[in-house]
Every structure is written in C-alpha cells, then in structure tokens.
Design brief:
The complex is a heterodimer of chains A (395) and B (275). Chain A has 395 residues and is α/β, with parallel strands linked by helices. Chain A is built from 16 helices and 14 strands. Chain A has 2 domains: 150 residues, Rossmann fold, CATH 3.40.50.1100; 213 residues, Rossmann fold, CATH 3.40.50. The chains are: A alpha/beta (395), B alpha/beta (275). The interface between A and B is large, with 36 and 40 residues.
C-alpha cells in the first residue's frame, strides 16, 4: 500500500478531490496549509493528545465480550469502547483535533453540520472548552426527531440553526454549513464530522480518528483476525482501519441496509450507489438516473447519509476492505443481545458492526479474534429502540 | 472559437447575461423567457439545470430548482429546450449551467452530442474548479464550446493568471463571497477586484452574484464588461409563478418581468424606453 494516500490533489485513486465553488478554494488552501504545519508540529500534536487523555478520558479500553463469544461458540469478540469516550462516541476525537486547529488558525467561530446531533454535540462541547462561538446546522426534520440533542447543544452554548432546504436532513445541513462557511471564511472554521467533504477534510478527519486504531493495536495482545466497524460517512471505521491497513488483518465495513437492499430504503452507498460528486468529493452516492441525490434510509441517524468517504470507496475498489450491509432489524437484534449478555447498550450505528461480528463469529475458531469498533453508546437511541421493540423488550 | 460568442459577446462593454432555471415553473415559460430576454438585449442566456443539492446557490435559486424538479426537469431535457428556443428565433449563445454530478451522470460523449444537436454554446460548472477541469476544458475546446471560468475576490493573483490564460467565452467574476442571491450593496473592494481581473483577462469580464438594481449596474459599468443577473430575475419569476403557469396569463407575467429587466439594465441603454 502506498503511503502517499491521498496524493497532492487529495485523490484516493480516482476518488476524492476538491469539487467546490471557486469561492471555497481559498478557504481549502488556507486549511490545507495550516493542517500540514500543525500535524508536523510536536507542540500541537502534544496538546491534541493531552486533551484526548485529560479531557476526553482516553485511551478507551478494549473489553472482551466473553459471554457473547461463549454464546456464539466461535471467535472471541473484543470491543473497542469508544462509547466510553467523553460525550459518548468517537466523534469527540475529531472535534478536539479540529477545534485546536481552528484556535491555531486564529478563527473565533466554528460551524458544523449534524444529523442525529452527535457531531453537533461534540462540536458544541469543544467550542465551550476552547472558547469558540459555535453554530450547528441541523435539518428541521432532524431537529424534530432529536429534541434531546438539540437541547444538549443549546445547553453547551451553541446556536442550532434549522435548515429548511431540500429534504431538511443531514445532507441539506451539510450544504448549508458549507454555504455559511464560504461566506464567512475569514473568521469561521468549518468543523466537519466525518471523513467526507473536499480535500483535505477526509484526510484530516481520518488522522484525528486514527487514535482508535493506534490504541487498539497497542492494546491487543496480538493482531486480531478481523476488525469490523460500521460505515455511514465512515469516520470511526477509517480511524479504526487505517493503522491496520498494512497488517494481515481482514477489515470489514458495515453499511446500513435499512429495511433491506431490495426495498430501496437503505443507506448502502457502496453496494447500491454510483460514482458521483457529493459535498465536494468524488465517491459513491445514492442518486437517481439523472444524478439527483436521493435520501437514504437507516434506523440509525448516524449511518443515514447518501454518500461515503472517498477513502472507503478506494479501499472497496482495491478490495483491501470488504463492505457488507446489515438491516435495521438485524442491528436491533444485536443491540438487544449485547445489552443482555454484556451489560452494554451500544449505539444503533455500532450495533450494525456488532451484528456482522455475530454473523461471522460462529464460523471461526475459538482461538480467532474479531475486534469490533463500538463507536458509541446507545443512550441517545433509547426512544428509537422503544418505538421498535415496544415497551416490553422481553416479549 | 464559437461563432455565436464571436458575434454577440466579443468586444462588447454592455453584456447582459441573464440566468434562468430550466423548467421553472414550466418548459414553455423557460422558452418564452429566453426569447423575451433576447429582445431586451441579453447577450447570453445562462440556462440553469435544477439540482437537488445546489451548493453555490442561495434560497431563491434553491426554490426555483425544486419547482423545476417537481415535474422532472433534467440536464438532457433542458438541453432539448434550447432547440425549441432556436426554432423560435433565439440567436444569442446559450450556456448550460450545471452542477458536476449531473454532468458526470450524463457523460461527456452524450453531453457534446446534445450540444451539437441543440446548438448550445457554453458550459458552466460551479463546482468544477480550475484544478479539476483539465479534461472537460480540453473536450470543450475540441467541441467549440466555451467553458466559463469563475474567479472570486479571494482568488490569488497567481490563480487568476492561470485561470485567465485558459478562460473562454467570458470571465465570470463572483462579486462577493457566499452564495448567489440579491445583495443591497457591494463591498467597495469589488471595484478593485474587477480592475485586477480586467488587467489579466483577454476576454470580456462580467460580474455576478447580487446584481439586482440599476444603480449597481451604473456603478459597475466602468469596471467590467457586463453583468450576470440570476436571483433577481428568478425572484420575479417566483412572484409571478401562478400567472406564468396559466397559458392565458403567461404573456402578462412575462411582460411584468420584461419591465423589471428593462429598468434593471437601463444604464446600458440597450432598448429605448417608450413612454
């Protein structure tokens, strides 16, 4: 595997690049230069790692899911516990990195997009921590669905800006955040939440999330046989996979198959999408025949995105990572099983990765190991879970 | 060199370049608007293709896109409309304004076949910056199609030089940062910006984003070769939308917009105003 991925133009093979209006080019150039300087500055990297440790509570542990492994009677399942990270998900790793970069660049304001509100909460959190003004763009439809996170963001001092354009969800919130950023680039930093967007965003987010994989490599007694992570935009997966790319480890990304691939209501971008441009990057996306972007569906708001990070599209093409799909119902089943067997309620996003592990483990030997990225905790999903499982979960 | 650009654009100092969205609110309206705009002195028609995710556009054009998408407008259908415009007497160049994803899905070969079939003269892709445009630039040149380049106040001298060197048709100056939409006034730095662009450019320089009043056109006259007017016209379409949708009253709606346009570009003195 080449080490110069992405290349100078921000390309991962034929994916990635910078497909943005001319008005945004200056902002991207400025960001790229500052990012390159920061990443080679030992002081900057030190402050990033200090924050991860003393503010966010890293390193997150790895838990051996012994009961679950025993029940499945195959491979040993280990969980990388990003649910124990501050604010309850891996999202904060990246938010801390980008906020420190914003401060370093002398920006006083940040903007972010959010779907379910997890990245919005992470952005609002670091804004409070580093004294930045924070605007979070969120679709009207999502605001209605995620009341609690809207309140959390406000409590943290952020302004939540309702987005009424398009389908009023994550993709539209992202459009609106980019539009706002381009108009206010002089004092504003755009804190993107996943490994998507124009170069250098996918690379930056990956580099601020690779701590997940780096820690895991150190914590595991030996290299795992398989590593599994869920993929929406793909930041927890990219952070987990990246440090393992050169190892003899099977890497599996799990997309949301929603109500089933055949129903058309899913977020399985790699298996059902086509090559195109979304949010400034060439990648796979869900679209109709003429190229209008389509709304995805997933029970988990965090996987409900019509595109996918360009590096995932590349790793899919090279075959280094295998991508599969897990349906809403399969994810819910996995969530229930983990709650009962291990006393851990995972985020519905993470339950997709877990479900794939549950499928594969029985066909493996007891001395083989699957490492699952448990990207977040399920507290935020309790309402959704109740709606689907009904009041009586033991029925 | 594209012949229609040569005849209607080259060497002029009073370019009026209106932008309309194909299919907003109907195909027939779009054709009739284009013809009216030519009568009022338009030098180029920018034909916008509606898109689900128009990153460079403000709310006015976003809403127009939704209106057009409601009845299934597409890049291919919009290009077909140009043929009908030509049959009804449209002589000025038509530039297709489309986001890159729509163009990618149609494909290069099909796009240029439709360009030839429908007498189309130019292409503007707002999310295809200079760095990513090499391939399309080459095929546009090979097909005598102008690829309209954009420059912004934040574009460095070095970039401006590189972009101007390759630019064809006219150079599109974005008046201010942010998205399309009407603005009450321009920042004074827009004039220094335009003067800077004029120094580098070998083709006509037109300014867009926020042009919506004759006073602005008057002030801009000395610093560039023309204006691009988008949201201000689309807003008029929006106000007349119900009138335009009905066949019986469509002409009335178009004449309302005609009056607006005539006043807006009056500083160019293109059409004598009869009292």
């Amino acid at each position: 595997m080449s080490t110069s991925i992405p290349d100078q133009r921000g390309r991962y093979g034929r994916y990635g690049g910078k497909y943005v209006p001319e008005t945004a080019m200056y902002a991207l150039e400025e960001l790229e230069q500052s990012l390159n300087e920061a990443m080679t500055d030992q002081e900057f990297m030190k402050s990033y790692h200090e924050e991860l440790k003393k503010y966010s509570g890293r390193p997150t542990p790895i838990t051996h899911a012994e009961n679950l492994s025993k029940r499945l009677g195959g491979a040993q399942i280990y969980l990388k516990r990003e649910d124990l990270n501050h604010t309850g998900a891996h999202k904060l790793n990246n938010a801390i990195g980008q906020a420190l970069l914003a401060v370093r660049m002398g920006k006083e304001k940040i903007v972010a997009e959010t779907g379910a509100g997890q990245h919005g909460v992470a952005a609002a959190t670091v804004a409070a921590r580093f004294g930045l003004e924070c605007k979070v763009f969120m679709g009207e439809e999502d605001i209605r669905r995620q009341e609690l996170n809207v309140f959390r963001m406000k409590l943290l001092g952020a302004e939540v800006v309702p987005v009424s354009s398009g389908s009023k969800t994550l993709k539209d919130a992202t459009n609106e955040a980019i539009r706002y950023w381009v108009a206010n680039v002089e004092d504003t930093f755009y804190l993107i939440g996943s490994v998507v967007g124009p170069h250098p965003y996918p690379k930056m987010v990956r580099d601020f999330q690779r701590v997940i994989g780096d820690e895991s490599r150190e914590q595991m007694a030996a290299l795992p046989d398989k590593v599994i992570a869920c993929v929406g935009g793909g930041s927890n997966a990219m952070g987990m996979f990246y440090p393992f790319l050169k190892d003899d480890v099977r890497l599996i990304g799990v997309e949301a198959a929603g109500k089933g691939i055949h129903t058309g209501e899913h977020a399985a971008t790699l298996s059902e999408g086509r090559l195109g441009v979304i949010h400034g990057s060439i990648t796979y996306l869900l679209q109709n025949e003429t190229g209008q972007i389509q709304e995805p569906h997933s029970i988990s708001a965090g996987l409900d995105y019509p595109g996918i990070g360009p590096e995932h599209a590349y790793l899919n093409e090279t075959g280094r990572v295998t991508y599969t799909g897990i349906t809403d119902n399969e994810a819910l089943d996995a969530l229930k099983v983990l709650s009962e067997e291990e006393g851990i309620i995972p985020a519905i996003e993470s339950a997709h990765a877990l479900s794939e592990a549950i499928k594969q483990a029985p066909d493996m030997n007891e001395n083989e190991v699957i490492l699952v990225c448990l990207s977040g905790r399920g507290d935020k999903d309790v309402h959704t879970i109740m709606e689907h499982l009904g009041g009586d979960v033991n029925e | 060199m594209n012949k229609r650009f040569e005849k209607h654009v080259n060497g002029r100092k009073d370019l009026f370049i209106p932008f309309i969205v194909a299919g907003d609110p109907s195909e027939e309206t779009t054709i009739n608007l284009a013809l009216m705009l030519q009568e009022e002195g338009a030098n180029v028609i920018e034909l916008g293709i509606p898109y689900s995710d128009p990153l460079a556009d403000g709310p006015v054009i976003q809403r127009a896109s939704l209106r057009a998408l409601e009845h299934g407008m597409s890049l291919e259908k919009a290009m077909g409309l140009v043929k009908q415009m030509r049959e009804k007497g449209l002589e000025i160049p038509v530039v297709i304004f489309t986001y890159y994803n729509l163009l990618l899905q149609l494909g290069e070969e099909r796009f240029f076949a439709l360009v030839r079939e429908n007498d189309i003269d130019g292409l503007l892709v707002p999310d295809l910056p200079f760095e990513e445009s090499e391939e399309w630039r080459a095929s546009c040149n090979a097909n005598e199609t102008a690829l309209i380049s954009l420059v912004a106040p934040t574009t460095s001298d070095k970039r401006l030089q590189a972009i101007s060197k390759e630019a064809t048709g006219f150079l599109y100056c974005v008046s201010s940062l942010g998205v399309t939409g009407t603005r009450t006034d321009f920042h004074s730095s827009v004039f220094t910006f335009l003067d800077r662009v004029k120094e580098h450019s070998m083709i006509p320089v037109a300014v867009g984003f926020g042009v919506s009043a004759p006073e602005q056109v008057e002030k801009l006259k000395e610093h560039c070769d023309g204006v691009i007017v988008g949201s201000a016209i689309i807003r008029q379409v929006e106000e007349q939308v119900e009138v335009l949708k009905k066949e019986a009253s469509q002409k009335e709606g178009i004449d309302q917009i005609r009056a607006y346009v005539r006043n807006l570009i009056s500083p160019y003195g293109k059409v004598k105003i009869h009292s």
